[in-house]
Automatic annotation (TrEMBL):
Ranges where the Electron transfer flavoprotein alpha/beta-subunit N-terminal domain occurs: 26-210
Family membership: Belongs to the ETF beta-subunit/FixA family.
Protein name in UniProt: Protein FixA
SMART domains for this protein: ETF
PROSITE patterns found in the cross-reference section: ETF_BETA
Entry's Gene Ontology molecular function annotations: electron transfer activity
Metal-binding among keywords: no
Keywords linked to the UniProt accession: Electron transport, Transport
InterPro entries: ET-Flavoprotein_bsu_CS, ETF_a/b_N, ETF_b, ETF_beta_N, Rossmann-like_a/b/a_fold
Pfam families referenced in this protein's UniProt entry, alphabetically: ETF
Native source organism of the sequence: Bacteroides faecalis
Amino acid sequence: MSLKIVVLAKQVPDTRNVGKDAMKADGTINRAALPAIFNPEDLNALEQALRLKDAHPGSTVTILTMGPGRAADIIREGLFRGADNGYLLTDRAFAGADTLATSYALATAIRKIGECDIIIGGRQAIDGDTAQVGPQVAEKLGLTQITYAEEILEVGEGKIKVKRHIDGGVETVEGPLPIVITVNGSATPCRPRNAKLVQKYKHAKTVTEKQQGNLDYTDLYDKRDYLNLTEWSVSDVNGDLVQCGLSGSPTKVKAIQNIVFQAKESKTISDSDRDVEDLIVELLANHTIG
């Protein structure tokens, strides 16, 4: 059986390079000041989707992402690795969204895409670590969900069998299609870019990118429709502005602290009872422990 698969992917700031300009005054992330990468666990999810495509001829993999214009890079990256197409949700009205507003926007986009068998994404994004968006999308669409997936074992007869990695062990569960699945970082890493696909899709652009850029290959977009990446605004997905972006986000950041770890003076102690006792007294006195 062929499958229609939607991969929820996010462009996130590289948290390995967070500096003093990482946050704005309103408590939202200053994405323009940080290097952007494909969210790691979404890559694990993409690999599971591509494996299903390999195993079920005729299946399609669609990338769905929300973000500013540069988030189109995520769609291109997915295409380079084997996805078939993608959609970019981009609108100023989407900006500043928490997980509730994000899941609302993604759910409305999925409804516009149409019927699909599997919606899959990473367990969580490294810029929030909430693990809420996938389950919230499932709830908004009224679909069954399987979280903490490590491997999709089998799909057939309207059902899917998944191995989950949970605290204390592993379990195998079964659920009906259509379904929403979130994937752990412990799942199989995503395959590398395919050189032929890079050559095929390297000029793929959204309408906005084509308007802003100096196009040397204008004629290609008329001849090769697959190079035209779809971008949707709030109105395109029939979204409610009240439920999008900051206005639809009940989560508010009240305060931000930049914690900088600095090397302090060090001391060496022996394993004698006296040295250990003195260390415990010192740690208790400065409230490091106790």
